[in-house]
Amino acid sequence: MEDLATAAIEAALKAGVSFADVRIENTSTTIIEINDGVSKQSMASRLKGAGIRAFIDGAWAFGQTTDLSSSGMRKIGDSVAKLALTTKEQVSEKFEIDGPIFEDRFEYNVKKPFSSISIDDKVSLVKMIDDQARDFDKRIVSTRSVYGDMYTELYIANSLGTKVYAENSIPRIISAPTAKDGANRQRIFKSLGVRGGYEVMDTDAAKNIGHDAAELVIELLSSIPATGGSYDVVMDPILNGVMTHEAFGHAAEADNWPSHSTVLEDKVGKEVGPEYLSITDDPTLDGQRGSYEYDWEGTKTKKRTLVKDGILTELLHSLETANRLDMDPNGAARSQSFMDAPLPRMSNTFMEPCDWDVDELIQDTKNGILLCSFNYGYTQSAKGQFMFQASHGYIIENGEKGRMVRDVSLAGNILEVLAKVDAIGNDFELDAGSCGKGGQAVPTMTGGPHARILNMPVGGM
Amino acid sequence: MTKRLLDIGERAVKLAEKMGAEQVEVYLAKSRAYEIEAENNAIKGASEQRDAGIGIRTVIGKKIGFAYVTTLNEDDITEAISHSLSLAKASLEDPDFVTLPSSGGTYHKAKKLFDNKVDTLSSEEAARLLIRTIDATKENLEGMDFAIEAAISSSSSFNAIVNNLGIAMAESRTSVSLYAYPVIKEGDDQTASYEYQISRDLNDIDPEYIGETAATLAIGFLRPKTIEGGTMPVIFEPLGANSILGRGFAGAVNAEEVQMGRSYIADAYGECIASESLEIIDDGTIPGGLGTRTFDAEGYVSQRTPIIESGVLKNLLHNSYTANKDDVENTGNAARPSYSGLPRISTSNFILTPGKGTVDDFISEMKKGIVCRNTGDRPNMTTGDLSAMVMEGYYIENGEIKFPLKNTLIGINMKDLLTGVSQVGSDSRTTFSMIAPSFVIENANITSG
Question: Measured between CB atoms, which of A39, A86, A341 is closest to B91?
Answer without folding.
Answer: A39
